[in-house]
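Good morning,

Both structures are done.
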Amino acid sequence: MGIKDNDSGYLDTKARIMAAIRGKGYSPPATQREPDPPAEAIPADEDSPDSEPVEEPTEQELLEAAGIPSHVAAAIAAPDEGAPGELPEVGADANGAPGAPSRALALRTDLLPPGAGVLCALEDDPGLYCMQSYLASRVSGDSKRTMLQSLQRVARMLNTTPDKIAWHKLRFQHTDAIRAKLLDCGYSRATVMMTLAGLKGVLRQAKRLGLMSVEDYDRATDWDPATGVSLPPGRELLAVDIQSIQAYLGQLEGTAYGAYLEAVFALCLGLGLRGDEASNVLTVGLDLGKATLKLLGKGHKEDEVPLGPAESRALSSWLAWRKFFERRHRVPHLLLRVQPNDTVMKSRPTCDRKQLEYLCRRVAREAGVKHFSPHDLRRTFCTRAIRESGGDLATVQRLMRHADIGTTKRYDRRSDEERHAARQKWTIWRPPEPVEPEPLEEPEPPESPPETRKPGFRLLPGGKT
């Protein structure tokens, strides 16, 4: 983030510095000095040394001469680009002069993800315009970064960069070859589907701009879906991991940094918020009286989540510390970027997704547990909620704010042993208990018939006749 982005009174600061320079005896360059009144034109003698043009000192040189560091002077002397979000007129050059041909229209660099550049003119480079307009149409910054990474992945496979690809000229033979190469490179099914989604988005933008016919678009995107099943990413924090983290946070009790970490884990683990949601929560959205928190979720959807007793205590403690930083850092965000020495960064006072990832790595290292990410905290929240609710996926889906219950199922990290144990606790079909038959009385053996002999035979010893 540059100096202009940090200081809202950039123009006033620049004017004061230039006024101070003039007070020291320096004269501003010709571009800053008021024009002299018209005078009679005096023809200069070409052979006279006085006719040689005198180079006026640049604004940066004057600032450096006044004792301002070079990198600060370079930022102040840079040409003004207008306020963030201010769009130049169509056909205007960098200085705003109308009628000059230019490639920069409609969007500034800070409105696009890193590496996307300034939106070019459609007639100059249609392929680049399709990519940049598609990225600019994404709602959240995280979605822009993900789609840009997908397009960069496609470009690396083609040994080029995304701005050099004529996206509007891709046909089915090209997209099918890209899909096949993604599978051959060993990417997971989720990565392949995400990459193809970014590719399809650019082609859809080309169709909307009239650079590709509907028939060509339908054919180019008629690829077979990536098949296969991959293991779910991430992990669930075990009970021993949470105990180790709580023990580490207990050592920081009574410090602003410790209250800050408690608030981070209350949002990410206690409420299951996404990283971008937790970093963008506003202070006005927190209502401790009603135990609710209003936030702007994925897809710019406003929602209100309930707070538990532990989360309310952690956020209340953090608000008490946050009041000490409001004098210098008047920002609407709930989370500030607190350092281990209980100070807030002046240049970047608010917390973002990268800061949350760094905090997770640091806490994992200090607590002696396996590495985890901010989204692993959300997975842990979902798994614990399913376990504690007895498998009530409908309630957990509302807590996770998922549009599809199938997404909630993918967050379930319960082990097979837990599933087997849960299966033994309930029975859907119960057969009738078997009835033992009454024992039957054995009949008495019949009396043996009397021995009869045949006439004319005599029984000899040994049973012979």
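Second structure follows.
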Amino acid sequence: MNRQEIIKYLTELSDRLSSKGLVGHLYIYDGACMALTLKAKEITNDIDSVFEPTDIIYAESLDMSDKYSLRKDWLNNAVIKYVKESKLNDISLYLTLPGLVVSCASPEFMLAMKCYAARDSDIDDIIILINSLGLKSSEKVFDLIDKYYDFSLIPFKTKIILDEIFRQLDFLSTKSRFNRISGGGGKSWILN
């Protein structure tokens, strides 16, 4: 799903809830949140969220999955474990529709959550979020993680992932400071 498709599906979900006289609440995290708020992630497979009323929204999302040939879990609450374990749930209003109020997690909370989960599938998103937030060291990221999660529960794998990311980012930064120049018949490099 791209940003436009996400909004289309949320709008239809809103219409369905509104026709029942309901107003649902949807708190979006992960790739869909990044696609909506940062516009840094073009496509996501699903909308990881926490929502109410749970049973009705699940039923409507299943009906929509048939209508649009979406995965059955295109709208899911698998992220709830990471939300419940956080000390602070940093979200803000994104969109208000007649039958649905949509909020998205902050980039800071998303980064903390993805580092806390430390899944290999999150590494690209971690890099996007680090760059988006302008963080320059793993220590700065750990300070941010500590704001949202009990630091003693952060997996050691998170340190390994962050150290490697910053090693690579430092290498790319150093490499970009070199310019190739051509003088006479030879080639040389200068450091900016």
